[in-house]
Amino acid sequence: MSDDDESVRAAAIDALTQQEAVDALMRGLDQEVPDSGATWAQAEAFVENLESETPELRMAAANVLGLLGVEDTARPLAKQLQTEEHVGVRARVARALGRIEQPAVTGILVDCLHGEPLKVRREAAESLGRLTTEQALDGLLSVVEDDSEAMRRTAVSSLGRFETAEPVDALVERLGDESDLVRRAAVFSLIEILSNVPPDQSHELRETIVDRMSARSDPSIIKSLIEIIDEGTQLHQRRNATWMLGRVAGDQRTKMDAIEALRELLGEDDDLIAQFAATGLAEIGGASVETSLLEVVETQEYGEDAVAMAAFALGKVGGDRSRQRLERLVDETDSEEVRRRAFSAISKLGGKT
Protein backbone atom coordinates (compact mmCIF):
# COMPACT_ATOMS: atom_id res chain seq x y z
CA MET A 1 0.00 0.00 0.00
CA SER A 2 3.01 2.33 0.16
CA ASP A 3 4.37 1.42 -3.29
CA ASP A 4 5.49 4.28 -5.54
CA ASP A 5 3.20 3.10 -8.33
CA GLU A 6 -0.39 4.32 -7.99
CA SER A 7 -1.82 1.25 -9.73
CA VAL A 8 -0.01 -1.05 -7.28
CA ARG A 9 -1.38 0.90 -4.32
CA ALA A 10 -4.89 0.70 -5.76
CA ALA A 11 -4.59 -3.04 -6.40
CA ALA A 12 -3.43 -3.62 -2.82
CA ILE A 13 -6.45 -1.71 -1.49
CA ASP A 14 -8.78 -3.75 -3.68
CA ALA A 15 -7.17 -7.01 -2.56
CA LEU A 16 -7.51 -6.17 1.13
CA THR A 17 -11.15 -5.27 0.62
CA GLN A 18 -11.92 -8.45 -1.28
CA GLN A 19 -10.49 -10.45 1.59
CA GLU A 20 -12.53 -8.33 4.03
CA ALA A 21 -9.29 -7.35 5.79
CA VAL A 22 -10.81 -3.99 6.60
CA ASP A 23 -8.90 -3.43 9.85
CA ALA A 24 -5.55 -4.05 8.17
CA LEU A 25 -6.55 -1.82 5.28
CA MET A 26 -7.43 1.11 7.50
CA ARG A 27 -4.37 0.68 9.71
CA GLY A 28 -2.26 0.87 6.55
CA LEU A 29 -3.89 4.24 5.87
CA ASP A 30 -3.32 5.41 9.48
CA GLN A 31 -7.04 5.39 10.18
CA GLU A 32 -9.16 4.00 12.98
CA VAL A 33 -12.53 2.42 12.30
CA PRO A 34 -15.20 1.31 14.79
CA ASP A 35 -14.87 -2.45 15.19
CA SER A 36 -18.13 -2.92 17.05
CA GLY A 37 -21.67 -1.61 17.05
CA ALA A 38 -24.18 -1.34 14.25
CA THR A 39 -23.09 -1.67 10.65
CA TRP A 40 -24.50 1.78 9.87
CA ALA A 41 -22.25 3.29 12.54
CA GLN A 42 -19.21 1.74 10.89
CA ALA A 43 -20.45 2.95 7.52
CA GLU A 44 -20.67 6.53 8.75
CA ALA A 45 -16.94 6.54 9.44
CA PHE A 46 -16.23 5.48 5.88
CA VAL A 47 -18.65 8.06 4.45
CA GLU A 48 -16.57 10.73 6.19
CA ASN A 49 -13.44 9.31 4.55
CA LEU A 50 -14.97 9.90 1.11
CA GLU A 51 -13.94 13.53 1.60
CA SER A 52 -10.34 12.73 2.51
CA GLU A 53 -7.57 14.51 0.64
CA THR A 54 -5.83 11.15 0.12
CA PRO A 55 -7.11 9.30 -3.00
CA GLU A 56 -6.15 5.92 -1.53
CA LEU A 57 -8.31 6.58 1.52
CA ARG A 58 -11.26 7.59 -0.67
CA MET A 59 -10.75 4.37 -2.67
CA ALA A 60 -10.69 2.30 0.49
CA ALA A 61 -13.78 4.04 1.85
CA ALA A 62 -15.72 3.33 -1.36
CA ASN A 63 -14.62 -0.30 -1.37
CA VAL A 64 -15.65 -0.89 2.24
CA LEU A 65 -18.98 0.90 1.83
CA GLY A 66 -19.75 -1.48 -1.02
CA LEU A 67 -18.79 -4.36 1.23
CA LEU A 68 -21.04 -3.15 4.09
CA GLY A 69 -23.99 -2.62 1.74
CA VAL A 70 -25.80 -0.05 3.88
CA GLU A 71 -28.58 1.47 1.77
CA ASP A 72 -28.26 4.95 3.29
CA THR A 73 -24.71 5.24 1.94
CA ALA A 74 -25.90 5.14 -1.68
CA ARG A 75 -26.71 8.86 -1.67
CA PRO A 76 -23.27 10.12 -0.50
CA LEU A 77 -21.57 7.65 -2.84
CA ALA A 78 -23.65 8.89 -5.77
CA LYS A 79 -22.77 12.47 -4.88
CA GLN A 80 -19.10 11.51 -4.74
CA LEU A 81 -19.31 9.89 -8.16
CA GLN A 82 -20.59 13.14 -9.65
CA THR A 83 -17.87 15.32 -8.12
CA GLU A 84 -14.83 13.02 -7.81
CA GLU A 85 -11.89 13.92 -10.06
CA HIS A 86 -9.67 10.87 -9.46
CA VAL A 87 -10.43 8.15 -12.01
CA GLY A 88 -9.50 5.29 -9.68
CA VAL A 89 -11.81 6.58 -6.97
CA ARG A 90 -14.69 7.07 -9.44
CA ALA A 91 -14.30 3.50 -10.62
CA ARG A 92 -14.50 2.14 -7.09
CA VAL A 93 -17.45 4.33 -6.18
CA ALA A 94 -19.30 3.01 -9.25
CA ARG A 95 -18.49 -0.52 -8.11
CA ALA A 96 -19.72 0.17 -4.57
CA LEU A 97 -23.05 1.55 -5.84
CA GLY A 98 -23.72 -1.72 -7.63
CA ARG A 99 -23.01 -3.75 -4.51
CA ILE A 100 -25.40 -1.66 -2.43
CA GLU A 101 -28.09 -2.37 -5.07
CA GLN A 102 -30.15 0.79 -4.69
CA PRO A 103 -32.22 1.27 -7.90
CA ALA A 104 -32.37 5.03 -7.28
CA VAL A 105 -28.76 5.41 -8.47
CA THR A 106 -29.38 3.71 -11.82
CA GLY A 107 -29.45 6.97 -13.79
CA ILE A 108 -26.11 8.15 -12.39
CA LEU A 109 -24.48 4.86 -13.36
CA VAL A 110 -26.01 4.95 -16.84
CA ASP A 111 -24.48 8.41 -17.30
CA CYS A 112 -21.06 6.85 -16.57
CA LEU A 113 -21.35 4.45 -19.51
CA HIS A 114 -20.36 7.19 -21.93
CA GLY A 115 -17.63 9.81 -21.90
CA GLU A 116 -15.70 8.29 -18.99
CA PRO A 117 -12.38 6.40 -18.88
CA LEU A 118 -12.78 2.70 -19.62
CA LYS A 119 -12.27 1.52 -16.03
CA VAL A 120 -15.15 3.72 -14.82
CA ARG A 121 -17.40 2.68 -17.70
CA ARG A 122 -16.79 -1.01 -17.02
CA GLU A 123 -17.47 -0.69 -13.29
CA ALA A 124 -20.70 1.16 -14.09
CA ALA A 125 -21.76 -1.59 -16.51
CA GLU A 126 -20.98 -4.28 -13.95
CA SER A 127 -23.03 -2.42 -11.33
CA LEU A 128 -25.99 -1.97 -13.68
CA GLY A 129 -26.06 -5.73 -14.08
CA ARG A 130 -26.61 -5.97 -10.33
CA LEU A 131 -29.45 -3.44 -10.34
CA THR A 132 -31.41 -5.09 -13.20
CA THR A 133 -33.88 -2.22 -13.63
CA GLU A 134 -35.44 -1.34 -17.00
CA GLN A 135 -33.26 1.78 -17.12
CA ALA A 136 -30.19 -0.34 -16.37
CA LEU A 137 -31.11 -2.69 -19.22
CA ASP A 138 -31.51 0.18 -21.67
CA GLY A 139 -28.15 1.57 -20.60
CA LEU A 140 -26.34 -1.73 -21.12
CA LEU A 141 -27.98 -2.29 -24.50
CA SER A 142 -26.57 1.07 -25.57
CA VAL A 143 -22.98 -0.19 -25.18
CA VAL A 144 -23.11 -3.79 -26.46
CA GLU A 145 -21.62 -2.55 -29.75
CA ASP A 146 -19.02 -0.33 -28.10
CA ASP A 147 -15.66 0.11 -29.84
CA SER A 148 -13.90 -1.36 -26.80
CA GLU A 149 -13.80 -5.15 -26.66
CA ALA A 150 -13.50 -5.03 -22.86
CA MET A 151 -16.57 -2.81 -22.60
CA ARG A 152 -18.64 -5.05 -24.88
CA ARG A 153 -17.64 -8.08 -22.85
CA THR A 154 -18.60 -6.44 -19.55
CA ALA A 155 -21.95 -5.24 -20.92
CA VAL A 156 -22.74 -8.65 -22.41
CA SER A 157 -21.86 -10.41 -19.15
CA SER A 158 -24.06 -8.03 -17.16
CA LEU A 159 -27.04 -8.70 -19.44
CA GLY A 160 -27.05 -12.31 -18.26
CA ARG A 161 -28.25 -11.17 -14.82
CA PHE A 162 -31.65 -9.99 -16.06
CA GLU A 163 -34.66 -12.23 -15.47
CA THR A 164 -36.28 -11.36 -18.78
CA ALA A 165 -36.06 -12.30 -22.44
CA GLU A 166 -35.48 -8.67 -23.48
CA PRO A 167 -31.65 -8.90 -23.82
CA VAL A 168 -31.78 -12.09 -25.92
CA ASP A 169 -31.74 -10.46 -29.36
CA ALA A 170 -28.75 -8.30 -28.45
CA LEU A 171 -26.89 -11.27 -26.99
CA VAL A 172 -27.58 -13.41 -30.04
CA GLU A 173 -26.16 -10.63 -32.21
CA ARG A 174 -22.99 -10.68 -30.10
CA LEU A 175 -22.56 -14.35 -31.01
CA GLY A 176 -21.18 -12.92 -34.23
CA ASP A 177 -18.82 -10.49 -32.49
CA GLU A 178 -15.28 -10.28 -33.85
CA SER A 179 -13.94 -11.04 -30.35
CA ASP A 180 -13.91 -14.63 -29.15
CA LEU A 181 -14.14 -13.38 -25.55
CA VAL A 182 -17.30 -11.40 -26.29
CA ARG A 183 -18.86 -14.35 -28.11
CA ARG A 184 -18.16 -16.63 -25.16
CA ALA A 185 -19.57 -14.08 -22.72
CA ALA A 186 -22.74 -13.97 -24.83
CA VAL A 187 -23.12 -17.75 -24.57
CA PHE A 188 -22.71 -17.62 -20.78
CA SER A 189 -25.30 -14.85 -20.50
CA LEU A 190 -27.81 -16.68 -22.68
CA ILE A 191 -27.46 -19.74 -20.46
CA GLU A 192 -28.01 -17.56 -17.37
CA ILE A 193 -31.13 -15.97 -18.85
CA LEU A 194 -32.53 -19.42 -19.63
CA SER A 195 -32.08 -20.26 -15.97
CA ASN A 196 -33.70 -17.04 -14.76
CA VAL A 197 -36.75 -16.44 -16.97
CA PRO A 198 -40.21 -17.48 -15.72
CA PRO A 199 -41.24 -21.03 -16.69
CA ASP A 200 -44.06 -19.82 -18.95
CA GLN A 201 -41.49 -18.08 -21.18
CA SER A 202 -38.87 -20.80 -21.05
CA HIS A 203 -39.93 -23.10 -23.91
CA GLU A 204 -40.35 -20.41 -26.55
CA LEU A 205 -37.15 -18.72 -25.45
CA ARG A 206 -35.18 -21.97 -25.65
CA GLU A 207 -36.31 -22.56 -29.21
CA THR A 208 -35.44 -19.01 -30.22
CA ILE A 209 -31.96 -19.20 -28.73
CA VAL A 210 -31.24 -22.64 -30.19
CA ASP A 211 -32.35 -21.60 -33.68
CA ARG A 212 -30.19 -18.48 -33.61
CA MET A 213 -27.16 -20.31 -32.18
CA SER A 214 -27.42 -23.11 -34.74
CA ALA A 215 -27.50 -20.61 -37.56
CA ARG A 216 -24.15 -19.18 -36.38
CA SER A 217 -22.31 -22.53 -36.60
CA ASP A 218 -19.44 -21.01 -34.64
CA PRO A 219 -16.87 -23.27 -32.92
CA SER A 220 -16.56 -20.80 -30.06
CA ILE A 221 -20.20 -21.45 -29.13
CA ILE A 222 -19.57 -25.18 -28.73
CA LYS A 223 -16.35 -24.47 -26.86
CA SER A 224 -18.16 -22.15 -24.46
CA LEU A 225 -20.95 -24.64 -23.77
CA ILE A 226 -18.43 -27.38 -23.05
CA GLU A 227 -16.55 -25.02 -20.75
CA ILE A 228 -19.73 -24.31 -18.80
CA ILE A 229 -20.40 -28.04 -18.48
CA ASP A 230 -16.87 -28.88 -17.39
CA GLU A 231 -16.16 -25.91 -15.12
CA GLY A 232 -19.55 -24.51 -14.12
CA THR A 233 -20.26 -24.35 -10.41
CA GLN A 234 -24.03 -23.93 -10.74
CA LEU A 235 -26.10 -27.02 -11.50
CA HIS A 236 -28.71 -25.10 -13.47
CA GLN A 237 -25.99 -23.70 -15.74
CA ARG A 238 -24.55 -27.14 -16.43
CA ARG A 239 -27.98 -28.61 -17.11
CA ASN A 240 -28.93 -25.88 -19.58
CA ALA A 241 -25.57 -26.05 -21.33
CA THR A 242 -25.88 -29.84 -21.70
CA TRP A 243 -29.40 -29.56 -23.06
CA MET A 244 -28.32 -26.91 -25.54
CA LEU A 245 -25.11 -28.60 -26.71
CA GLY A 246 -26.84 -31.41 -28.57
CA ARG A 247 -29.08 -28.95 -30.36
CA VAL A 248 -26.49 -26.49 -31.62
CA ALA A 249 -23.72 -28.94 -32.50
CA GLY A 250 -23.35 -27.32 -35.89
CA ASP A 251 -21.26 -28.60 -38.77
CA GLN A 252 -18.54 -31.24 -38.85
CA ARG A 253 -15.93 -28.87 -37.35
CA THR A 254 -17.78 -28.77 -34.05
CA LYS A 255 -19.91 -31.91 -34.08
CA MET A 256 -17.26 -34.33 -32.88
CA ASP A 257 -16.32 -32.12 -29.93
CA ALA A 258 -19.98 -32.00 -28.91
CA ILE A 259 -20.40 -35.76 -29.29
CA GLU A 260 -17.35 -36.49 -27.15
CA ALA A 261 -18.42 -34.05 -24.44
CA LEU A 262 -21.96 -35.44 -24.28
CA ARG A 263 -20.73 -39.03 -24.21
CA GLU A 264 -18.64 -38.28 -21.12
CA LEU A 265 -21.76 -37.00 -19.36
CA LEU A 266 -23.79 -40.19 -19.72
CA GLY A 267 -22.63 -41.40 -16.32
CA GLU A 268 -23.15 -38.09 -14.49
CA ASP A 269 -24.47 -38.28 -10.94
CA ASP A 270 -27.13 -35.73 -11.82
CA ASP A 271 -29.90 -37.64 -13.58
CA LEU A 272 -31.05 -34.66 -15.64
CA ILE A 273 -27.59 -33.99 -17.03
CA ALA A 274 -27.21 -37.65 -17.98
CA GLN A 275 -30.66 -37.64 -19.59
CA PHE A 276 -29.96 -34.40 -21.49
CA ALA A 277 -26.66 -35.87 -22.71
CA ALA A 278 -28.41 -38.96 -24.08
CA THR A 279 -31.18 -37.00 -25.78
CA GLY A 280 -28.63 -34.52 -27.09
CA LEU A 281 -26.69 -37.31 -28.75
CA ALA A 282 -29.93 -38.56 -30.25
CA GLU A 283 -30.61 -35.06 -31.60
CA ILE A 284 -27.23 -35.04 -33.36
CA GLY A 285 -27.69 -38.59 -34.65
CA GLY A 286 -25.76 -40.28 -37.44
CA ALA A 287 -23.04 -42.89 -37.69
CA SER A 288 -20.58 -40.88 -35.58
CA VAL A 289 -22.95 -40.84 -32.63
CA GLU A 290 -23.73 -44.55 -33.00
CA THR A 291 -20.02 -45.40 -33.04
CA SER A 292 -19.36 -43.23 -30.01
CA LEU A 293 -22.19 -44.84 -28.04
CA LEU A 294 -21.06 -48.34 -28.98
CA GLU A 295 -17.65 -47.53 -27.51
CA VAL A 296 -19.37 -46.91 -24.17
CA VAL A 297 -21.10 -50.28 -24.36
CA GLU A 298 -18.12 -52.26 -25.64
CA THR A 299 -15.27 -50.96 -23.47
CA GLN A 300 -14.71 -51.32 -19.74
CA GLU A 301 -14.05 -47.62 -19.21
CA TYR A 302 -17.60 -46.63 -18.29
CA GLY A 303 -19.81 -47.45 -15.33
CA GLU A 304 -23.21 -49.09 -15.39
CA ASP A 305 -25.09 -45.78 -15.39
CA ALA A 306 -23.25 -44.61 -18.51
CA VAL A 307 -23.80 -47.94 -20.26
CA ALA A 308 -27.51 -47.83 -19.45
CA MET A 309 -27.86 -44.32 -20.89
CA ALA A 310 -25.82 -45.30 -23.95
CA ALA A 311 -28.17 -48.22 -24.54
CA PHE A 312 -31.14 -45.87 -24.25
CA ALA A 313 -29.63 -43.49 -26.84
CA LEU A 314 -28.73 -46.32 -29.20
CA GLY A 315 -32.42 -47.18 -29.34
CA LYS A 316 -32.95 -43.80 -30.99
CA VAL A 317 -29.97 -43.64 -33.36
CA GLY A 318 -28.69 -47.18 -33.85
CA GLY A 319 -28.87 -49.63 -36.74
CA ASP A 320 -28.22 -53.34 -37.18
CA ARG A 321 -24.82 -53.32 -35.48
CA SER A 322 -26.31 -51.60 -32.45
CA ARG A 323 -29.19 -54.09 -32.29
CA GLN A 324 -26.78 -57.02 -32.40
CA ARG A 325 -24.52 -55.54 -29.74
CA LEU A 326 -27.46 -54.73 -27.47
CA GLU A 327 -28.76 -58.30 -27.77
CA ARG A 328 -25.39 -59.55 -26.53
CA LEU A 329 -25.42 -56.95 -23.79
CA VAL A 330 -28.71 -58.33 -22.45
CA ASP A 331 -27.04 -61.70 -21.95
CA GLU A 332 -23.76 -60.34 -20.58
CA THR A 333 -24.81 -57.69 -18.08
CA ASP A 334 -25.52 -58.23 -14.40
CA SER A 335 -27.25 -54.87 -14.10
CA GLU A 336 -31.03 -54.85 -14.17
CA GLU A 337 -31.07 -51.20 -15.26
CA VAL A 338 -28.70 -51.87 -18.17
CA ARG A 339 -30.76 -54.90 -19.18
CA ARG A 340 -34.00 -52.89 -19.03
CA ARG A 341 -32.56 -50.07 -21.14
CA ALA A 342 -31.10 -52.53 -23.64
CA PHE A 343 -34.42 -54.41 -23.98
CA SER A 344 -36.23 -51.12 -24.62
CA ALA A 345 -33.67 -50.08 -27.24
CA ILE A 346 -33.83 -53.44 -29.01
CA SER A 347 -37.59 -53.19 -29.31
CA LYS A 348 -37.27 -49.77 -30.92
CA LEU A 349 -34.69 -51.11 -33.37
CA GLY A 350 -36.92 -53.97 -34.46
CA GLY A 351 -35.11 -56.75 -32.61
CA LYS A 352 -36.57 -59.63 -30.63
CA THR A 353 -37.51 -59.01 -26.99
Automatic annotation (TrEMBL):
Pfam families reported in the protein's UniProt record: HEAT_2
An example Gene Ontology molecular-function term: oxidoreductase activity
Lyase listed as a keyword: yes
Gene3D superfamilies on file: Leucine-rich Repeat Variant
Keywords, in A-Z order: Lyase
Keyword Transferase part of the UniProt annotation: no
Protein name: Phycocyanin alpha phycocyanobilin lyase-like
Native source organism of the sequence: Halobacterium salinarum (strain ATCC 700922 / JCM 11081 / NRC-1) (Halobacterium halobium)
Organismal lineage: Archaea, Methanobacteriati, Methanobacteriota, Stenosarchaea group, Halobacteria
